[in-house]
Amino acid sequence: MAARPLLAAGALNQACVCMPLRGRCVTVSRVVTDRRLPFLQSFVMARRGALAGVGLLACCLCWCVVVQPALATCAGGGGRRYDAMFVFGDSLADTGNICVNKSAAATLLLTFAQPPYGMTYFGHPTCRCSDGRLVVDFLAEELGLPLLPPSKRSGGDFRRGANMAIVGATALDFDFLKSIGLGYPIWNNGAMNVQLQWFRRLLPSICGAPQSCRAHLSKSLFVFGSLGGNDYNAMLFFGFTVDQAKNYTPKIVDAIATGLRTAIVQKLVAMGAAEIVVPGVMPVGCFPVYLAILPSSNKADYDELGCLRPLNALSVYHNALLQSRIAGLQARYIRSSPPARIMYADYYTLVAQMLHTPARFGFRSGITACCGAGGGEYNYEFDARCGMKGAAACPVPSSHVCWDGAHTTEAANRLIAGGWLRGPYCHPPILH
Description:
This protein is mainly alpha-helical. The chain contains 13 helices and six strands. Helices cover about 30% and strands about 5% of the residues. The two termini are about 20 Å apart.
């Protein structure tokens, strides 16, 4: 039986209206001690990997690789079939790696391991940074696959997919971040290259001999992103201005493109893989955690909704560079044998539209968080954020786009997945 479509036919077949971003990137905030450092200290990770405290911001961006059987209900008539789904990234895609092998005491320090996280679908926290399912969960369901197990879970069956994503993951390696003064040990050992190593170690248990891997991976969809968000978070919350962070965008995008080309395209296409999705980053200037921690005294820095233009301009710049690099890879590998189909998945446009015009998508609230302590302009307070004492979820999470101040609700994630599967927010759509 065909799965229920994520979206009604034509629900997202509307013209993409990019959020207006005027003006130049300016300093949003240079304050570190009163706003940023306490925030960072809440999700510090010791170098040995023992959790010293994890807060919300590390839980921000993701990188995925998907291998799955697509249902024949796709737009355009012809169904694509995939046999497994492999995901890389950060908190937008982590389905539990951050909680694997942690002691009960350490897990208690993870706000997203506490109620009301997971309330909508699972009925309990699963270490997902949402009230329910993530975008990658909806992709798996729509394509007829089980929800992906965390790759760090021992004894798992990963033949139909595995999730390497982990909260706090960065595109750049820790050594580079340390070299530019960002050595504060907030990152777990889950940067992009580390996750690729995890995947390579799993391959023998997934498909065995090279010829078997070729047959298995030839029916694969790889979603490679979103990456880069936590790199910017580290910079901005450690006192970098938006302009200073922007100077590193080419290096961040180059790291993503290099990882995509050398670890995914060149090696896995040679093994049979041919379907790759690369998402961009979200309009972070519209999310409560950034609005609360990085306020601007310049009214011109805010758009008509109250989003921070400089932060959103940084996201736009990142996405533009990423799309340019993807276009080069598309032109090169469409002629490979087998040809590789590389798709750009647009987080920014759809999420910006949902935040700016929530009613158009069935929401009542855009930038206000569903889960919080009820304080402040955005229902976000650092000392009473979602998962902490005093915080609670709104009665109907599906009425909100934003869940906890930094992540989207299950309802929003469903729309994002639908926009990637059928369009128009993936170029070309996954199911075309």
